[in-house]
Amino acid sequence: MKPTKTAETRTATLAEIAREAGVSAPTVSKVLNGRADVAPSTRSRVEELLRAHGYRRRRAEATRSPLIDLVFHELESAWAMEVIRGVENVARDAGLSVVLSESAGRLTPGRTWADQVAARRPHGVVLVLSGLDESQRALLTSRSIPFVVMDPAGDPGTDVPSIGATNWQGGLAATRHLVELGHTRIGALSGPSRMMCSRARVDGYRAALETAGLPVDPSLIVTGDFHHEAGYRLGLKLLRREDRPTAVFAGNDLQALGLYEAARELGLRIPEDLSVVGFDDLPVARWVGPPLTTVRQPLTEMAEAAARLVLDLGREEESPVATRVELATSLVVRSSTAPPAA
Amino acid sequence: MKPTKTAETRTATLAEIAREAGVSAPTVSKVLNGRADVAPSTRSRVEELLRAHGYRRRRAEATRSPLIDLVFHELESAWAMEVIRGVENVARDAGLSVVLSESAGRLTPGRTWADQVAARRPHGVVLVLSGLDESQRALLTSRSIPFVVMDPAGDPGTDVPSIGATNWQGGLAATRHLVELGHTRIGALSGPSRMMCSRARVDGYRAALETAGLPVDPSLIVTGDFHHEAGYRLGLKLLRREDRPTAVFAGNDLQALGLYEAARELGLRIPEDLSVVGFDDLPVARWVGPPLTTVRQPLTEMAEAAARLVLDLGREEESPVATRVELATSLVVRSSTAPPAA
Questions:
Q1: Do A229 and A258 touch, CB atoms closer than 8 A?
Q2: Predicted local confidence at residue B55, as pLDDT
Q3: Beta-strand relationship, B97-102 and A97-102
Q4: What is the largest CA-CA distance in chain B?
Q5: By a Cβ cutoff of 8 Å, what residues of chain A touch chain B?
Q6: At the top level of its lineage, which domain of life is listed (chains A, B) (predicted)?
Q7: pLDDT single digits (tens) B3-36
Q8: Residue A322 has what pLDDT?
Q9: Residue B327 near residue B165 (C-beta atoms within 8 A)
């Protein structure tokens, strides 16, 4: 038998919150139920109190829909597909369906989204490269809707459970591989610097150069978004230099493919004239010519871990201590890397 | 002003159906509401009568969840991502969220799925390369949940609204392009023959050969699934022949990429030794080396059309006549095709 909850964990009742907010209990109830007929100022005052008191809806289990919400920063590329598959795997086993949303390029989903989630009461929310602002967190917390961030773009704070990959170690392993092949002039394509994963990968690259006693040339580090087009554009910039690098560590596989195109356009052969390492190990990495050496990020497993964690959070009465789990990356050596030409 | 409904369109009432089924009206109501506490035999008898009478729940609008269901045969590859994006675009504009399911390789989603859909009452269901069996159709119809099939695997029947692409014309255009380059020995990789789209593409290929006065060699047509692995395996089979084809029309882009790998392995250069045409025009087609000549299928636009159609169906009082819409395919010539070596 589980022990009964003690008095310490008791939270404010709905009536107490109504009194403190100077509204009726039914109004608090309306706010809790995501109803539209509440003035915005009243809603935010009540939400604030619900949050301050750590109010958690009782018996949340019983009123939940058999859904799990999955929110992407942007729905692009095979990357997202690997993640969707992981969440689908866990949802299917748990008898849940997946609601998919896109925060349409913004890094926090819109207010409408949060209201919709509060109204449909899913078992949990998995956010991919996407965060929640304070009011959204308060809204979900007040409904006992747990959330987990996968591969956070920013610093999610130590109280937000998150699943990531060892990005720094990946950058280190990729660059060490190039150093061991004999490269001394190694460029880096970086993803957006507001995303922590991009920074961690480039920091791993720097650490590999420094520990090998090689200079870090800041002009060889170029930054853009995670798409093919950026890899192509930044690749041309790096490869057109007189003193072009003999190897490049790309921020992800799509950037690496853009770099392939830039090299083709300039008549540079991979790996004879240029070695390339990617990041992610999307299916396409095996299919391109030459097959891409890359840092494997276990996206499907990460998504499964995030979905399992969010369901676990929903089952527990108290928040668990788990804050951040990082799954290991690993270097997959294929045919796009070789020693530099003599 | 819209005219008032006439007596002709009146359907059986719940009480009439209950009487005919020999059960109480509340039992019919339970079946309609997807409740579990009804014996399977009773449920199927009632469903049968609901279907026979063309029963449609009144005022369905009011009780719908702000959701649209999207069901895939399998969630694989960037192909699915293009489709998801199209449905998301339409859903976002309509203030709806998308529930994503996978029928896990089976061509009709499971019974549990249909019950879940009936219980959550979405605005509509878009099925991708996936069909519904009779009882599932009856279940959705009885709840006035409209559905549309996108790119059907089988023959969806003339009464099921569906959105497709001009697969036959695509196969014709791809093969004509190869014939015009001077190829006379052209192979074809086909997708699964149970999928109508595969058959239509290969039939277009045959028609191009026949109208050009070229023989159709059945041994040059090989069949497998739509994945990279199949393209590689079937590609090796075709290319290892003494009398290997000088050009191959692949069933889709992923098969074409598998064929690229087979050619690389055998030391055949594309397009010098082998011309390749794909189908779909996924983003990756532009990124591979050499960039792939392929038949563009407007997947995102098709998905948008399917989502809009299903929402239109939900708004209308009568089923519209629209049964099958095919969006045009178009040949995109890149660098994987050239005249055969002399």
A1: yes
A2: 65
A3: antiparallel
A4: 80
A5: 65-67, 70, 75-78, 80-81, 84-85, 88, 92, 95, 97-102, 104, 112, 116, 120, 228, 257-258, 260-261, 264, 283-284, 286-289
A6: Bacteria
A7: 333 333 345 677 788 888 888 877 887 777 666 6
A8: 56
A9: yes
Of the ranges A65-79, A199-213, B193-207, which one carries the lowest mean pLDDT score? A65-79
CATH architecture observed for domain B66-165+300-327: 3-Layer(aba) Sandwich (3.40)
Q: Token pair for residue B241? A: 């022949």
Cα torsion for B162, B168, B174, B178, to the nearest 10°?
170
Q: How long, in residues, is chain A?
A: 342
pLDDT above 60 (res A61):
no
Q: Which of A146, A250, A237 is nearest to A190 (CA)?
A: A250
Residue type, B85: R
Q: Do B81 and A100 touch (CB under 8 A)?
A: no
Q: Would B66-165+300-327 and B167-297 be classified into the same CATH topology?
A: yes
| CATH code that applies to domain A7-52 | 1.10.260.40
State how far residue B116 is from chain A, nearest Cα, in angstroms. 8
pLDDT surpassing 50 at residue B97: yes
The letter for the amino acid at B166 is T
Q: Which residues contact A278 (CB under 8 A, 6 or more apart)?
A: A250, A252, A253, A255, A256, A257, A285, A292, A293, A294, A295, A336
**What length is written for chain B?**
342
Contact A247, A187 (CB under 8 A): yes
Longest dimension (CA), chain A: 80
State how far the Cα of A174 lies from the Cα of A75, in Å rounded to an integer: 27
Least CB–CB distance from B88: residue in A75, A78, A81: A75
Class of domain A167-298: alpha beta
Residues ≥6 apart with Cβ < 8 Å to B277: B174, B175, B177, B178, B247, B248, B249, B250, B256, B292, B293, B294, B295, B331, B336, B337
| Mutation to test the A interface, candidates B100, B260, B304, most A Cβ within 10 Å | B100
CA distance, residue A8 to nearest chain B CA (Å) = 38
Q: Of A62-66, A73-77, B103-107, give the lowest mean pLDDT range.
A: B103-107
Count of CB contacts below 8 A, A vs B? 99
Residues B304-342: tens digit of each pLDDT:
999 999 998 888 655 555 577 889 999 999 999 999 987
pLDDT, position A29: 76
Tokens describing residue B168: 């036959």
Give the span between the Cα atoms of B29 and A267, in whole angstroms: 71
Prediction ipTM score: 0.70
Please check whether the domain covering A65-165+300-327 is classified as CATH 3.30.70.360: no
Listed range (A41-50, A208-217, B33-42, B258-267) with the worst mean pLDDT: B33-42
Taking the alpha carbons at both ends of chain A, their separation in whole angstroms is: 72
Q: What angle do CA A86, A90, A92 make, to 5 degrees?
A: 110
CA–CA gap between residue A157 and residue B335 (Å, rounded): 49
Number of Cβ within 10 Å of residue B51's Cβ equals 16
**Per-domain residue ranges of chain B:** 7-52, 66-165+300-327, 167-297
Residue type, A148: V
Q: What is the CATH number of domain B167-297?
A: 3.40.50.2300
With beta carbons less than 8 A apart as the criterion, state whether A76 and A69 touch.
Answer: no
Please give the Cα distance from A52 to A17 (Å, whole number).
10
Locate all alpha helices (DSSP H) within chain B, ordered by sequence: 14-21, 25-32, 40-52, 60-63, 77-93, 111-120, 134-142, 167-180, 196-211, 228-239, 253-265, 284-287, 299-315
